[in-house]
Amino acid sequence: MSEEFEFKPMSFPPAVVARISPELSLQRHLAIGIRPNLRKFEEFRNIEFNDGGLSRYGSDDQIKNTSVLGSSVLKSGNTTVITTITAGIIEEDLPAHEINDDAAAVNAVFAKDKTDDSNNDIPKSQLDEYESIYPVVEVERGRVGAPTDEEMILSQKLYETFLHSKILSKDSLKVKVGLRSIDSQGKVDIYYKDDDDDSEDFGLGPKRSWKFVLYAKVKVFSRSGPLFDLVWASVLSALQNTKLPRAHIDENAADIKIPVKMRGNHGTIREQYQIICDAISRDPLKLNNEAIGISSNFGIIDIDEESIQTLQNEDSMEIDSKSILLTDIEGEEEEISSKKTISIVSDRDSKNLKSLTIIGNVSNDQLRKSFELTKFRFKHFAK
Amino acid sequence: MILSATERSYLYELLQQTPPIRPDGRSNKQFRPIQSHIGFLDNSNGSAKITLSDGSECIVSIKAEVVEKSTTNELVSVDVDVSGHRDDTSFILNLQSSLKTLYLKHISSESLNLTTKFAYKLFIDVLVISNYSYPLTLMTFTSYLALNNTYLPKITSSVDDKEIEEQPTFHDYEFNKLIGQFPIVFTVAIIGKNYIIDPNIEEMEVSDNGLIISWFNGKPISPIQNVKLNDGNLKSVKPQLILQSIDLVKEVANDVINSLNSAE
Amino acid sequence: MATTIDRRRLLGPANAKPLVFAPLPEEYQQKLQIDASKEDDIESQITRTFIKSGLITNANGSSFLELDGNIVSISVYGPRPIRGSFVEKTTLSVNLEDNTGLFNDLLNKKFCQYIENNFLSVINLSKYPKSGIDIFINIISVQDIDQLYLKLLSLVSDATTLAIIDAGIEIIDLVVSSFDYENNTVLSYIKNDEIVGILGESEDSIENLSKIIEKTQKKSIHVKNALTTHLISTSQ
């Protein structure tokens, strides 16, 4: 008695194949001319954003009691990115000749020519004229603990790309310090020195200056693919609605000298300046709008001839090249299979590149194609 | 897990009886005996130690510092250390948060005031050396004793220093006692329809829910909240039981305060 | 005090000071003033509330809730296997992530403890041995951290109920929380008249607790109706 064994091929529903064999699933999709997420090869996901109303200056008539200065809620596909901008104040280190009045006076007599033109030969475009922001990116994934590699890399890349994009100049972060005084009737006045105002300083003694430091907290929900594009767009949109508060020094504090006992010596004087931000008045953060562009990513998938052959003939599509350029990678299958990637950050009119990352063996044609798509995308974006 | 399934159900049955039969024979409103010492730390402004009958032990040290009122917003700082628990666990932070809310609200800043510019800031350091039951009650009792026996240096310079730029100076050896009322916290365990005060570890293990109720100035006050006395045995509670627990606290609170006050 | 430098995050220069804002002038403060009658009117609060479940696709369950400038998002992960020795009941952990910068450590833990205690008594823990359930609370925006933080807590609790249901975790009953502004107390109920959570932080004595219970219980019935209606309408 002989039993006949029949080998039945196992079959799985598409969702299961996608999990257990993402590469195969992707290849089969591509062979019939569609991506697993049902987008076309060169189709970007839609990006929607709004300010989310999280900022202190949500609308004109209401000020919220929060220190968030700008915000953005971005949605693209299932992914949500929430960015909040906060700030700190730091005292700037000034060169000695600016702090010390004597030195200035001495220079005025002996080094008249030198003091003025010392800045002239430095071109404005130098990197140290620009500032970056300090981003902390968190991708929610149901775990606690130290940041993941992806989070650290995203934060670092944001920081560097932002700095090299020259979007935020040093000047725009200067704190315009006003002075608050209370007159004998108890009326409070705050004086802000305007830019064209040449009047003397408020008698704060030695010159001091302060600047804002901007922090961006970026929270990502429902990650589904590489995040830099979305995070970049989210941070920029939050910065575009960021407003910096005006700040003042309390008149009483302006000349307070607190005796500090130091090594038994009573003579040391410590000056304390408490800088208080105005509850209401603020100025929009000045950004170099021309430098603000978009970031796009591309993945290149080599077509696997074998997996195409497994398809029935009527399903397959004519694919003219051996590799396919996919825009805006989404989903596990595409992300795992994209061994070659291009990431482009450009400025507003896609004239200049701000950042370009190429991984793997990318042909010139593919690179050119991705530039074209970036330009094309920006035109639509601008509308 | 300190109890076997049989022990647990036996104990649970006993505590369900009317009146509840507690393993150490106490009534539902009876505390475990405590032993206290005060003023034994020379370098602190106030100190106290309480030892419970089960070996739980808590030391509180109170230190004071002169601070500028304009730059300090909180005149009481609480630090909690329980042996066997890391500082950043939620258990410690929750104890700390309960104590901090309690003392910030109920230690009057008047009693800490020095001059128009300066005040004392109290640093309450709570150290639980060994701990077998929910330690909050023990901690507040010990802090109560310590606060009640805190002596702050007597100021000799002028109290009104609005126009003068000088720091306050103090008497060489005379002290003023810190005057004021201080809050304490009671722990009540709820088991079935019964409620028992000051549960020990076995009682905690089988309890359905726990409640902490604060007491100040002759009245039950907030914070009032439910606490988990064991891992994963929590059950919901009828509102009536919470109200009855508060009545129980009302019944015993004054006696507790009196006996704490009589501690030497 | 953090003496070690965090090299994993870009936190900016160490000597930068956080912004200190002057208090708002009176005309602005009046707009932010809390209207006690508005806080008591639970029905209109419910109509102002926006709820959405299941937005976060990589969590087992999630919910998003918005009311009066409070925005919270809860994601529930689990029941998922845990490492280590066998446990016969699932372990519950609650984490709160604050995106507003308004929470301190103590308030953070207070929220977590309250939520944990609430749900420990309603989740069928023994149904999920060898596993853990992690609840992540994301605070996105806060109406008033000084006076209405317990209102926020009640919203967090309601949102957590929805997220747990979205995750398909078995619970005894819906946990509904209600907040009493007058006495700064939040209570959480199941089965209409059983308390699973209480946190009172009022300034005065709590002699009137029975009144507070009565009041919040009434409110909670409205909330429960609203949650049930929402669940039925979204399940269709």
What does this structure look like?
The complex is a heterotrimer of chains A (383), B (264) and C (236). With 383 residues, chain A is α+β, with helices and mostly antiparallel strands. Chain A has two domains: 22-88 and 130-168 and 214-242 and 289-380, GHMP Kinase, N-terminal domain (Ribosomal Protein S5, domain 2); 178-200 and 248-280, no CATH class. Helices cover 27% and strands 28% of the residues of chain A. In chain A, strands 1-2-3-9-5 form a five-stranded mixed beta sheet. Chain A has a four-stranded mixed beta sheet with strand order 8-7-10-13. The longest helix of chain A has 19 residues, at 364-382. Chain B has a five-stranded mixed beta sheet. Chain B is elongated. Chain C has one domain (39-235): GHMP Kinase, N-terminal domain (Ribosomal Protein S5, domain 2, 2-Layer Sandwich). Helices cover 34% and strands 26% of the residues of chain C. Chain C is built from six helices and nine strands; from the N terminus they run E-H-H-H-E-E-E-E-H-E-H-E-E-E-H. Chain C is globular. At the A-C interface, strand 3, strand 5, helix 6, strand 9 and strand 13 of A face strand 1, helix 1, strand 4 and strand 6 of C.
Query: In one word, what is the shape of chain B?
Result: elongated
Number of strands of chain A: 17
> In whole angstroms, how far apart are the ends of chain A?
77 Å
Order of helices and strands of chain A: HHEEEHHHEEHEEEEHEHEEEEHEHEEH
Helix content of chain B: 25-40%
Number of helices of chain B: 5
Helix-and-strand structural type of chain A: alpha+beta
Task: Report the oligomer.
Answer: heterotrimer
Radius of gyration of chain A: 29 Å
- The top level CATH class name of chain B: Alpha Beta
CATH homology superfamily of the largest domain in chain A? GHMP Kinase, N-terminal domain
Tell me the total number of β-strands of chain B: 11
Average predicted confidence as pLDDT of chain B:
88
Could you name the ranges of chain A where pLDDT drops below 50 across 5 or more consecutive residues? 114-120, 195-201, 262-270
* Helical segment count of chain A: 11
Q: Gyration radius of chain B, to the nearest Å?
A: 20 Å
Strand order, biggest sheet of chain A? 1-2-3-9-5
